[in-house]
Amino acid sequence: LTNRPLPRRHGGQDSMGDIEAMQAALEQQILNVAQTVEDQIDAQNKALDDMDEDDLERLREKRMQQMRKANEQRAEWRAMGHGQYQELTDEKEFFEAAKKSDHMLCHFYRGTTPRCAIVDKHLGLLAPKHIEARFCRINAEKSPFLVQKLLVVVLPTIALVHKGKVIDYVVGFDDIGGHDDFPTEVLEWRIACQGVIKVDYDVHDGPPGEAQLHKQRYGGKGFKARPGIWQTHEGSSDEGGGSDDDE
What we know:
Blueprint: H1 12-50, H2 53-79, E1 85-87, H3 91-100, E2 103-109, H4 114-126, E3 134-139, H5 144-149, E4 154-155, E5 157-162, E6 165-171, H6 184-192, H7 210-217, E7 243-244
């Protein structure tokens, strides 16, 4: 073999030129966005400057009406039991609650099932935060008709209800990481996927904040939305009863 010089690489300057061009384009895009935001702010300020006393008074009145309506809605919700995590004494009370509240979730539990106590802890924290929905629980063993009608098989099961109709179930812990020490934010996210409660982020991005640390701890498993998680529930099984999730 003869010693031959290695072929010279070409295009180094071209690569640098491409990077500089991309950086310049990015900077221009950022400037364009900033200019758009500035223009929008200027337009809003101009609209305010152009308002006369009557316009400002109408704007204040409109906001006052919105505030009064929101306060009346909150008072109505509280009168129906919203803002608390409450026990339903029987099946009749379940149906009555489902008719009164547009959004409701009900935990089917059994006192001897440890994971039901975990769900109770998290729902107790979420109920005061989400006054827009009714949070309640019912003893599955004392509600045989309801358990059979709603096809509740695994405990714990959380039924998500919209305008009197069960639209989905959170069955066991499979949808919230499969572990007992999941953060409250994960269950909050799972419930919000069906719009039963409101959150200030896009549920399609997965649970936020502390939940991401939980995700990293378990190797990134458990928080990928299963097929149908944003669709209505169409039934699970023909069996009745209520077996424990961790059996």
